[in-house]
């Protein structure tokens, strides 16, 4: 039996990277999936490749109206989401903190943190009516053991990690679980910005050297963790910061 059969999931930033991996695994495990992404065309392509159990909507997660539209699209296509994965994220280039300008700072916090504010306001009332739900926020090892040069990104992920625990404490009486997944760096579209230098095997090797299991994270690694947190197998788990990091934060 598939682990989230007939569940409804809304996943942001799911047109690529970790989000796409989560969407594909959730669909394979029996869920109906709404893919929300700033790149609407790519989101549509991913949904079409998954099949009738997936739909797509263009969504800028930093804008409340876009998030509300995505939730409405999920409700109309499939129903009230049982699972929400706040995966959409961005970063600034790895560089000294004083070289990051205010507009870039605002963008990082709007996409990584304010987006969860918008999504929470849109979906929690619906989950409360049903007295059930699993919210999974994609934090980062950057919020647990930060690397130099990514100070403002690290801070945004620290906020994601902590707000996940606070949400869990507040929403527990409504039977809404909230957890954070904290991946180590993966080979996603943001890798060159995280590195701050060209994406070469030599520069990747410097990152891998800090990970005891000897490799970066993959969309499959993150998707498997998200599947567990979305399923009834983790019914008594809430408020955790789950490192998916090959031992990076030991």
Give me a quick take on this structure.
The chain has 250 residues and is α/β, with parallel strands linked by helices.
Notes on the protein architecture:
With 250 residues, the protein is of the alpha/beta class. It contains eight helices and seven strands, in the order E-H-E-H-E-H-E-H-E-H-E-H-H-H-E. The protein has a seven-stranded parallel sheet, with helices on both faces. The protein starts with 7 loop residues before the first strand and ends in a 6-residue tail after the last strand.
Dominant shape: globular
Quickly name the level 1 CATH class. Answer: Alpha Beta
Kindly estimate the percentage of residues that lie in beta strands according to DSSP.
Answer: 15-25%
CATH topology: Rossmann fold
- What structural class is derived from the secondary structure elements? alpha/beta
Q: What is the H level of CATH, i.e. the homologous superfamily?
A: NAD(P)-binding Rossmann-like Domain
- Secondary structure: number of strands: 7
Radius of gyration: 17 Å
The mean pLDDT is 95
What is the string of SSEs from the N terminus onward? EHEHEHEHEHEHHHE
Tally of contiguous helical segments: 8
Termini gap: 35 Å
Helix content: 40-55%
What does the main sheet amount to? 7 strands, parallel
Q: How many structural units, i.e. domains?
A: 1
CATH architecture: 3-Layer(aba) Sandwich
List low-pLDDT spans: none
What's the arrangement of strands in the largest beta sheet?
3-2-1-4-5-6-7
């Amino acid at each position: 039996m598939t682990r989230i059969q007939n569940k409804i999931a809304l996943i942001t930033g799911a047109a690529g990277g970790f989000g796409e991996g989560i969407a594909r695994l959730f669909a394979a495990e029996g869920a109906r999936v709404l893919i929300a992404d700033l790149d609407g065309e790519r989101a549509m392509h991913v949904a079409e490749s998954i099949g009738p159990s997936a739909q797509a909507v263009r969504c800028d997660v930093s804008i409340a109206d876009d998030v509300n539209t995505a939730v409405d699209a999920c409700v109309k296509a499939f129903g009230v989401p049982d699972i929400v994965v706040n995966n959409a994220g961005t970063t600034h280039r790895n560089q000294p903190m004083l070289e990051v300008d205010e507009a870039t700072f605002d963008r990082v916090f709007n996409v990584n943190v304010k987006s969860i504010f918008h999504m929470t306001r849109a979906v929690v009332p619906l989950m409360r009516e049903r007295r059930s739900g699993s919210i999974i926020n994609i934090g980062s090892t950057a919020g647990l053991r930060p690397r130099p040069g990514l100070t403002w990104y690290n801070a945004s992920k620290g906020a994601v990690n902590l707000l996940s625990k606070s949400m869990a404490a507040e929403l527990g009486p409504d039977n809404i679980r909230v957890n954070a997944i904290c991946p180590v760096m993966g080979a996603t579209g943001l890798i060159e910005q995280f590195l701050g230098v060209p994406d070469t095997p030599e520069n990747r090797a410097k990152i891998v050297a800090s990970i005891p299991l000897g490799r970066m994270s993959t969309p499959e690694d993150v998707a498997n963790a998200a599947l567990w947190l979305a399923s009834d197998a983790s019914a008594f788990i809430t408020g955790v910061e789950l490192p998916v990091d090959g031992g990076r934060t030991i």
